[in-house]
Design a protein that fits this description.
alpha/beta
Length: 395
C-alpha cells in the first residue's frame, strides 16, 4: 500500500486530503499547524486555541497527526502589527516548518510527500535525495500571473526571495495539484509543462450548505425584489469597487433590488461609496449557510480567485452566481442556466448581469435547482476520491 506524507504549516484544504488518505490506509502522517482534535494536546495548543479547537476538529486518528504550531504562533505574535509584519512572520514560520518536516521525511520514508507553497523547498530536496515522489499542492494561481493583479505586501526584495523559493519548489515537484482549470492554465501560461499540472477542484459540504424555499414563491408571484449577496473581504482584488459602481449605477437607473455584503471590513462604511449595501460581519459556516439561503444571487467580481469557495457554497444553497472569467469556480457555471460569467474589472458588465437577473427573476426556481445540482458534483466526497486516486496512480 502506498504511504503518503501530507505537510502543511496551516491547513487550507490539506485536512480533506489527509482524511481521504487515512480512510484508505494511505496516510503515513499528517503534519499541520492547526489542531485536529477538540482538545489540543500540550500547553501551547491549549494556549493558542482555547475556544476554536472544536471548529478545527476532524475525524482522523491522532496517531497519524503531528502538530507543529509555528504558523499560529507567528499570527499571535504579529497580531495588530499590520500586513507587512504578518506576511514576514508567516514566511519565516513556513521556512522553519519546512526545515523541521524535512527531517521527518527521512524517518518515515513515505512513497509520496505532499507539501504546500513556501513550505516545501527543504522537504522536496530531502525527498529527491531519498527517491520519494514530490507533489506540490498549490492553493493559488502561479505567482507570476498573480503579480499582475496583486501588489506585494512585503518589500520588493522579500517578494523576490519568496518568488524564487516558489520557483524552486515548482522545479522540484514531480506533480503539481491546483484547484481549478483556471489555475492550471496560469501555470501552463508561465511555462510549466501541462503534463505536470493537474486540476483538482475543491469541494463543498452539501449537507451543511443547503437551499430553502424562502422567497421562491414571492418571486414566482413577482412581488419581491431580487436579493444579491457578496461574501468576502473588502479588497480591490475581490472587485468590491466594481460592485459598488454597479450597485450605484443600477440604483440611479431606478432598478429595485437589495444587496448585502457579508464580511467586508470592520471600519465604518462610506454609505455613499458602497451605494447603501447592507453590511453584515463574518459568520460561522452554519450561519453563513442560512444567510445565503435567504438570498437569490451571489456576486463574486474578483480580479482573480484560484477557485472561490463561496461560489460552491452559495450554489449548494441554491443561488445562481455571477462570477468573473478569472474565478476558478466559473467551471461550475453554465451561462443563463445557473449563473453568468463576465469579464473582470468591468462595472458595465456587472450591471448588465445584475439587470439580466432582475428581468428574469421568474426563472429563479429553475436556476436554483440547476445551481444545487452543479454544486453536488463538487461535494468534498468527490474531491477526496479524485485526489486519492490520482496519488495512488503516481509511480
Amino acid at each position: 500500500m502506498m504511504r503518503v506524507l501530507v505537510c502543511h504549516g496551516g491547513r487550507q484544504h490539506s485536512h480533506h486530503l489527509a482524511m481521504a488518505l487515512a480512510s484508505r490506509g494511505m496516510l503515513a502522517k499528517y503534519v499541520t499547524g492547526l489542531p485536529t482534535q477538540r482538545h489540543p494536546g500540550g500547553w501551547l495548543g491549549r494556549f493558542l486555541f482555547p475556544k476554536k479547537a472544536e471548529a478545527y476538529a476532524i475525524p482522523i486518528d491522532p496517531a497519524l497527526v503531528k502538530h507543529v504550531y509555528l504558523e499560529p504562533v507567528a499570527r499571535r505574535v504579529t497580531r495588530g502589527l499590520g500586513p507587512k509584519w504578518s506576511r514576514a512572520a508567516g514566511s519565516f514560520a513556513d521556512r522553519l516548518f519546512d526545515r523541521w518536516v524535512c527531517g521527518l521525511v527521512g524517518k518515515l520514508r513515505p512513497d509520496v510527500v505532499v507539501a504546500y507553497e513556501t513550505g516545501a523547498l527543504c522537504i522536496f530536496r530531502t525527498a529527491k535525495e531519498l527517491g520519494v515522489k514530490t507533489v506540490l499542492d498549490a492553493a493559488s494561481i502561479h505567482h507570476r500571473w498573480q503579480d499582475r493583479f496583486l501588489p506585494a505586501v512585503e518589500s520588493e526584495a522579500a517578494h523576490r526571495r519568496t518568488n524564487l523559493r516558489k520557483d524552486a519548489e515548482i522545479e522540484l515537484a514531480d506533480e503539481i495539484l491546483v484547484v481549478s482549470k483556471f489555475a492550471c492554465q496560469s501555470y501552463v501560461d508561465c511555462g510549466v509543462s501541462s503534463e505536470r499540472v493537474h486540476a483538482m477542484p475543491l469541494g463543498v459540504d452539501t449537507n451543511r450548505f443547503r437551499p430553502d424555499d424562502r422567497g421562491v414563491r414571492a418571486h414566482q408571484d413577482g412581488n419581491q425584489h431580487l436579493r444579491f449577496v457578496y461574501v468576502g473581504n473588502e479588497s480591490q482584488l475581490k472587485g468590491v469597487e466594481v460592485l459598488y459602481q454597479a450597485v450605484a449605477l443600477l440604483r440611479a437607473a431606478g432598478e429595485k433590488f437589495t444587496a448585502t455584503m457579508i464580511g467586508g471590513s470592520s471600519r465604518s462604511p462610506d454609505e455613499n461609496r458602497c451605494g447603501g449595501i447592507v453590511r453584515k460581519p463574518w459568520m460561522s459556516h452554519d450561519l453563513l449557510s442560512s444567510e445565503l439561503a435567504g438570498h437569490d444571487v451571489l456576486i463574486l467580481p474578483s480580479f482573480f480567485d484560484s477557485f472561490g469557495m463561496v461560489v460552491a457554497e452559495a450554489m449548494a444553497c441554491g443561488l445562481p452566481a455571477i462570477v468573473t472569467e478569472n474565478v476558478g469556480a466559473k467551471e461550475m457555471i453554465t451561462d443563463r442556466e445557473n449563473g453568468l460569467v463576465i469579464p473582470a474589472g468591468q462595472a458595465d458588465a456587472l450591471v448588465d448581469a445584475m439587470r439580466w437577473f432582475i428581468a428574469h427573476r421568474h426563472e429563479l426556481p429553475t436556476m436554483s435547482l440547476a445551481a444545487r445540482k452543479s454544486a453536488e458534483q463538487y461535494d468534498w466526497t468527490n474531491y477526496r476520491q479524485r485526489v486519492t486516486e490520482f496519488l495512488a496512480s503516481i509511480r
